[in-house]
Every structure is written in structure tokens, then in C-alpha cells.
Amino acid sequence: MGAAPGRSMYPAPFASRHIRLRPPGVTRTAYVEVPETTIPAVGGAPGQSYEPAGWEIWAPFNRLYLDGRYAEAADGAREAAKSHPEYAGLLYNLACSESLAGRTADAIEHPGLAIDKSERFRSFAGGDSDFDPIRKEPAFQALVTA
Length: 146
Hints:
The protein is mostly helical. The protein is built from six helices and three strands, in the order E-E-E-H-H-H-H-H-H.
């Protein structure tokens, strides 16, 4: 069974069942051709649209962050964010790195941009220990309590 034009076919972990997805950049839809086939959806919440966070853009800087090289992670993520400002997760992780690197002004600006794109980052920032260095800053408090 071949894939229709504009679709990719991925084998499911079940014999003779396939999942067809439209390519990135369009509304994603899954098609089932065999009754009772389960299509897993990863990263979404029931009843809500999936919000891409840009984890794949952040991934090259995550090792720097994990190694405690926060300034380097922030420098790289800042450049990536210039090319991909649409990803709230990238902006949020950038802000975490900036906070831990002691870059207070930047660490307050970027979670605000992330929250503007996706409200869920407000509650994340409120409890994230990466923001402990700036937690008492009035501008940061305004972001997480608004």
C-alpha cells in the first residue's frame, strides 16, 4: 500500500496497520484505514490544539545547560531564537539559561515573550528553580502573577 501524494506513511507497531500523516506546515491529520486502529498523539492535551514548543531547536543547547554552561547555552539559544521567535519553549529555555547565567534583564524579557505565545509557561516559570536568581525581581513577579 503506497502513500498518497503529500502524505507520509509510517508503519504502526501492528501488522498491516499504518498511520498516515500530512507533512509539517499544514494542519496535521491522522487517517486510519483499518477498523479499531489506535493512533497515539504525543505532546497534546485532550481537547486542546498541540502547541509546538521548539524543543528540536533547543536540543543542541541542552547539553550546555545540563553541564552548567549557562552563558554558552544562552548565547546559542539567543541566536536560534532570532531565527525561530515563534517557539515559546525555546524562549523559555533561553530565559532559564539567562537567569542562571546572571543576565537578569534578558531573563525577564524572554519568559514574557514565551508567556505571550503560550499561557502555560506562566505557571512553569512560577515554580521553576532556574528562575530563583531573579524570583524577587518585581518585573519577574509581575510576569508570573498576572
